[in-house]
Specification:
The protein is an alpha/beta fold and about 425 residues long. About 45% of the residues lie in helices and about 15% in strands. The protein folds into 2 domains: about 240 residues, Aspartate Aminotransferase, domain 2; about 130 residues, Aspartate Aminotransferase, domain 1, CATH 3.90.1150.10. Strands 4-12-11-10-9-5-6 form a 7-stranded mixed beta sheet, sandwiched between helices. Strands 13-16-15 form a 3-stranded antiparallel beta sheet.
């Protein structure tokens, strides 16, 4: 905690929360698939002097003076992002993944236009048009689903039929709780048939695409990719929009970001994005990305062996979704709470064709990016899955839970988060 000396001396209350969170992360295992640990270099950039600078506009076209270093660092981030994903254009200013999606909608559509995206209950994201979101009041959202929830196969015939009926302006590929890989070529074929843009929301798997272990939608001809810069990409919390090759689309996105939706970009986060993108360009990141998938498969094997139903029948990426209510008689909410008690953090999650509520669903969602960052491999992934099931099957056994917590703590302390990834 020596890096928090100024806060410790000045503000004991805030320091206590930082110390508590650092201890929680050190002694517990993070299995929320949208979370990860960043390097000390990324943390330093996030807390750097770029926090002080307003930089409305873009490199070479700012509205304030004093931009010689902000321009350089933003261009570094842009160039590295383009290299990582094979894009001709990149905008690194979006403040988050949700912001990136909303900006993208306004860049490519007019109010009332239609988006075809994955149904939330089948793995989609709130920003893909859930009725509770504000963006749902501006644009018309129609949805596609899986054909078979036990294999994860997307119903591409239904997707095409819905597209032909509704003539969407955007066909959106992407998800937050889907564990298979999409057939991007089919999306492009259908989009060409109806004259739609193809957009991939790759927030969850951007790092795995950058690491070369999952397919890149741009290789199939997608127009645009939106993403967060944290999660599997292991950068600071933020967003990004990439354009494969169309200059007109890129210009519309830039205008939609600023001045359309945002003011001054957060230059400290852009500096941190540049650092993280540099890390993702190293050979070590490719090895990391491969291990994320290997670890997920190891966890899958335990759940299958123990007869616990996995949505989509397993995983091709970094995450798994388990029906713990149907298999173990434990609700997703109770599972989240009891696992948190033993030092395993994950999240409750609705499953396809859910019969319960969003706040007390049937499933749990978990994944391997953060544990893999700590250097854990198949042995640890297998044991973690076993400990999860032991805990859920003995959730009222205080002695069993204490033993599990002790083992989890030992595993975590023997696999500390590294300060550097390069």
């Amino acid at each position: 905690m020596s890096h928090y000396n100024f806060i410790k001396a000045q503000d004991a209350e805030v320091y206590a929360t930082l110390a508590g969170e650092e201890e929680r992360e050190a002694r517990g295992i993070e299995l929320i698939p949208s979370e990860n640990y960043v390097s000390r270099a990324v943390l330093e950039a996030s807390g750097s002097v770029f926090t002080n600078k307003y930089s409305e506009g873009y490199p070479g076209k700012r509205y304030y003076g004093g931009q010689q270093y902000t321009d350089i660092v933003e261009n570094i981030a842009i160039d590295r992002a383009k290299q990582l994903f094979g894009a001709k254009y990149a905008n690194v200013q979006p403040l988050g993944g949700a912001a990136a999606n909303v900006i993208m909608y306004f860049a490519l559509m007019e109010p009332g236009d239609t988006v075809l995206g994955m149904d939330l209950s089948h793995g989609g994201h709130l920003t893909h048009g859930h009725p509770t979101t504000a963006i749902n009041k501006v644009f018309n959202f129609v949805r596609y689903k899986m054909k078979n929830v036990d294999t994860g196969e997307i119903d591409y015939d239904e997707l095409r039929a819905v597209a032909l009926e509704h003539k969407p302006k955007i066909i959106l590929a992407g998800f937050s709780a889907y564990s298979r890989e999409l057939d991007y070529t089919k999306f492009v074929e259908i989009a060409k048939e109806v004259g739609a843009y193809t957009v991939a929301d790759m927030a969850h798997i951007a790092g795995l695409i950058a690491g070369g272990v999952l397919k890149n939608p741009f290789d199939a001809g997608f127009d645009v990719m939106t993403t967060t810069t944290h999660k599997t990409l292991r950068g600071p919390r933020g967003g990004m929009i990439l354009t494969r090759e169309n200059e007109d689309i890129a210009k519309r996105i830039n205008k939609a970001v600023f001045p359309g939706m945002q003011g001054g970009p957060h230059m400290h986060q852009i500096a941190a994005k540049a650092v993280a993108f540099g890390e993702a360009l190293t050979p070590a990141f490719k090895i990391y990305s491969q291990q994320v998938l290997v670890n997920a498969k190891a966890m899958e094997a335990v759940f299958k062996r123990e007869g616990v139903r996995l949505l989509c029948g397993g995983t091709d990426n970094h995450l798994l979704l388990a029906d713990v209510f149907g298999s173990l008689g434990v609700t997703g909410k109770d599972a989240e709470v009891v696992l948190d008690e033993v030092g395993i953090t994950l999240n409750k999650n609705m499953i396809a064709d859910e019969t319960r509520t969003a706040m007390d669903p049937s499933g749990i969602r978990f994944g391997t990016p953060a544990m893999t960052t700590r250097g854990m491999k198949e042995k640890e992934a297998t044991r973690l899955a076993e400990l999860m099931l032991e805990t859920l099957r003995h959730k009222d056994d205080a002695g069993k839970k204490a033993a599990v917590k002790s083992e989890i703590t030992e595993m975590c302390l023997s696999h500390p988060v590294p300060e550097s990834f390069v």
